[in-house]
Design goal:
50% of the residues lie in helices and 11% in strands. It has a five-stranded parallel β-sheet, sandwiched between helices. The protein is globular.
């Protein structure tokens, strides 16, 4: 029986347009200077290993020319859309029967912006209240799909893999979880998780 649900945040609960940021960054950055940009810029920022200032400085040094700081900030946040109210209502309903956990690869800039969006659109001051635990990569200094982050969540949340469902929109993030015995579902953003979640749970509980 499933007793725990681990939710990814972006493209599962929060609507994203990752292509918007990708296109904006392509306009700003010099591809010849970005060969190792994931390992040197994006991933360290997601793990909270570098500051927000250092992150934008590293982007600036990889640009076609030096742009104003606000341009990088807007480009980086362009992907962030909204959290529909009905998904919050889903969380409220699910929390009556399941332990809910949030596990997100994110960074300080996106975290601040998303919490501002949720406050302005839904009046929710503390989104973490909807979960038993919330794990953000920049705060725990680990990121998906590293195996250690899944072991950490299981240990800290005191949950069993066999009783846990993990939902993420990226298959590469699910493979390590599966190796630990966690039940997984690869979510397509074209579907609404609030519509299909109960069928996913029903099918797992009937296995």
């Amino acid at each position: 029986m499933i007793k725990n649900i681990i939710f990814d945040f972006g493209n599962v609960l929060l609507d994203l347009d990752e292509q918007a940021t990708f296109e904006r960054m392509n306009e700003l950055l010099d591809p010849d200077k970005c060969l190792n940009i994931n390992e040197e810029v994006f991933f360290p920022f997601e793990r909270g290993e570098i500051s927000e200032e250092a992150f934008f400085n590293r982007l600036q040094r990889r640009s076609k020319k030096v742009f104003q700081a606000e341009i990088y900030y807007e480009a980086w946040n362009a992907m962030l859309l909204s959290l529909p109210k009905h998904r919050v209502e889903m969380l409220v309903e699910l929390s009556k029967s399941y332990k809910l956990i949030l596990l997100s690869n994110t960074n300080l800039t996106h975290y601040r912006k998303v919490m501002k969006i949720i406050w302005q659109t839904l009046g929710i001051e503390k989104f973490s209240n909807y979960f038993s635990q919330s794990y953000y990569s920049h705060l725990i200094h680990m990121r998906k799909p590293d195996l250690e982050i899944y072991k950490f969540v299981l240990h800290e949340s005191q949950i069993l893999p066999s009783e846990t469902l993990y939902i993420d929109d990226k298959q590469e993030n699910l493979i390590p979880a599966q190796s630990l015995g966690i039940n997984t579902h690869c979510h397509s953003p074209i579907e609404d998780i609030s519509v299909i979640i109960y069928k996913i749970l029903k099918d797992l509980n009937e296995e």
